[in-house]
Specification:
The protein is an alpha+beta fold. Among the domains are: 1-42, no CATH class; 57-131, Alpha-Beta Plaits. The protein has three helices and six strands; from the N terminus they run βββαββαβα. It has helices at 78-81, 110-114, 141-164, and strands spanning 4-7, 26-30, 56-69, 88-91, 96-99, 120-135. It has a two-stranded antiparallel ribbon with strand order 1-2. Strands 3-6 form a two-stranded antiparallel ribbon. Strands 4-5 form a two-stranded antiparallel sheet. It is flat and about 80 Å long. It starts with a strand and ends in a 5-residue tail after the last helix. The structure holds iron/sulfur cluster (SF4). Iron/sulfur cluster binds at residues 67, 82-83, 85, 87-88, 105-111, 122.
Amino acid sequence: MGPKVVYSKDLISSDSKIKPVYDTIPLVKLKEDEVLNIEAVAKVGYGKEHAKWMPTTVCAYKQYPEITFNEDVEIDYDCAQACPRGILKSDRRSKKIKILDIEDCAMCKSCVRASDNGYINVGFRPNDFIFRIETDGAMPPKEVLLKACDVLGEKADKFIRFSEEGGSK
Ligand code: SF4
């Protein structure tokens, strides 16, 4: 009974396994003596039906960067200064350029362009990728990835069966 704010945590489910993902979502503000009588239905939805059911907010991959130095030419500290992400750090004492966080490299090659003598080279590992998934909290990223793999596996099986049956309906 009001006055109060009704939050998602106030929803009581008849099934103990069903509960709000977040407890602190305000649903309605009640005035003095107001009472809320509400019946809510929890429904499983799929992203292919509507974007509101997509659990991912970010899903992207890039190839794994690989930075190498040409030891046959003079060390070129200018290339470290050119990195917009601060990934390269000149260490004049040890006469080296350190790579601070290879996974943050955008492979923009600003460092390569800044080096007149070809001291640095930026490429990528052919078989390694950095895959990033961020979710809205409805499901953990690992669960999203595993479920996506299951769906891909099922689709591949379906395609194989279809091909083995002659490819026609
Ligand atoms: S490729 Fe770009 S982000 Fe990567 S180290 Fe060079 S300048 Fe920095």
